[in-house]
Amino acid sequence: MKNKLYNPELEKAIAKIQEIKAKTVCIQLPDGMKPYAQEIEQEITTKTGARVLIWLGSNFGACDIPLGLNRMGVDLLISWGHNKFHKKEEW
Q: Which of 42, 52, 81, 89 is the most exposed place for a label (fewest CB within 10 A)?
């Protein structure tokens, strides 16, 4: 991704997709990153061959999971945010 404002760590996402052999991936982005959705989708598709669905609904954090992913055949949801997600032991 060429934008220096955000670092979506695509290499981690791509590694996870390859690890679990995901065929259909849903990406969920906060509003500030949505302009980069197509660029993110293209990189994921090119490097993994996975079908990428871009969730255009809300994304207010880790608890805001899209409904109906199972019905759409999604193998993996990747939800990006603006801040690092801290594990409980890091608090």
A: 89
